[in-house]
């Protein structure tokens, strides 16, 4: 019987981390299904979903845990329900504007107050070409559940972005 497992990892960034992780999964009999990997502040981190025969699950867990000796910290979650699909409406929010403390907090407060779930979020800052200041940019995929009210959320995001002097777009995905 197959089961799904998700593990997260973080390590100092260096060549060979993905090769080592994928080799570990393969040697234990697992199948690498999906991942999100990134370099951030000199670290390399990610989330990986694998499927593995239930009988080999402990072997994979032990081998992943042993990577700590090579400087890779791993956290493992077993028996993930890979078939849980949300039928909610999904939207994408794109934000850009001058950076300042608190933007993500304000956005997150709006998300939770409208019962929205963050599916994927990528945020970063970069130098503004003309002003030399820092620009904040974010792309956020959100899931709207049955109790969400899209029009009220749109109104709140518009007011929030006006207050914070941010440009935004909302699109269905």
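Sequence proposed for the structure above (173 residues):
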């Amino acid at each position: 019987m197959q089961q799904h497992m998700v593990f997260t990892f973080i390590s100092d960034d260096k060549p060979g981390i993905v090769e080592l992780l994928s080799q570990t999964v393969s040697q234990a009999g697992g199948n690498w299904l999906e991942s999100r990997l990134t370099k951030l502040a000199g670290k390399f981190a990610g989330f990986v979903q694998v499927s593995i025969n239930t009988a080999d699950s402990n072997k994979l867990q032990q081998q992943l845990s042993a990577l700590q000796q090579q400087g890779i910290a791993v956290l493992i979650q077993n028996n993930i329900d890979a078939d849980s699909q949300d039928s909610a409406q999904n939207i994408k929010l794109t934000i850009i504007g001058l950076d300042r403390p608190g933007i993500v907090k304000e956005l997150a407060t709006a998300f939770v107050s409208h019962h929205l779930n963050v599916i994927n979020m990528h945020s970063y800052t970069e130098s503004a070409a003309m002003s030399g200041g820092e620009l904040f940019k974010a792309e956020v995929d959100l899931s709207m559940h049955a109790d969400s009210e899209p029009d009220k959320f749109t109104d709140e995001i518009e007011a929030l972005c006006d207050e914070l002097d941010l440009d935004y777009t909302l699109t269905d995905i």
